[in-house]
What does this fold into?
Amino acid sequence: MLELHGLSVTYGKHRALDGVSLYTKPGEIVVILGANGAGKSTVLKSIAGICEGRVTGAMSMNGEGLLGLPPHKVVERGVALVPEGRGVFADLSVRENLMLGANPERAREDAQANYDRLIGLFPKLAERAGQTVRTMSGGEQQMVAIGRAMMSNPTILMLDEPSLGLSPLLSRELFQNLKAVREAGLGILLVEQNARLSLGIADRGYLLENGEILREERADVLRSDPAVQAAYLGGG
Ligand code: ATP
It folds into this structure.
């Protein structure tokens, strides 16, 4: 289980997060909803060890502390981030990108088994194994980015705005794929502007406003709440 207790982040004098507490268990999808600038990316970056601000509070994975660890150590603890904007290597093939994801020690030994499991889950990646990523559609590139993170053999997968720039059709396909990831036993912590889609697949959600958690609720409860609908679902 990934747990945060009283996580606060400041960028210079600006306090971006103020005492954020949340958790994600394996086998569940958790979404963080919030307006632009609420601090959603800062939560994921802090966990991943790539936040440029001053981070305080407690963060742990299965009881082991994460605060202050460099990014590769966080990955070794089983927490992988798919950053906003994907971060794939455009000039490499799909297979090369995926294999780069298997670099952490926890993944090296089982790289082939992880690869086989991944392409079992996403057969399209296997069909495109030799293709240069640059020539793929936005949705396909997003799947490569997710696949690469999964090659690190994570327990919890974190995704920052995965549907950004994707068509509604590709976004729906992507979210169906995330359900498959959950069914494979991973936990997912998701930051997403598309509240309708994300609440549609999530088990639980947190509302983040001005760096503070306002509410934590089951996703279906949030989806049918008029206040949430007005704020995040365009009124319907
Ligand atoms: P969005 O949905 O627009 O991406 P967000 O909820 O992910 O927003 P963050 O990117 O976490 O928000 O930013 C939270 C606040 O921290 C914002 O006010 C932002 O301007 C500020 N911030 C983020 N990164 C930095 C940084 N590297 N230096 C200074 N301020 C930053």
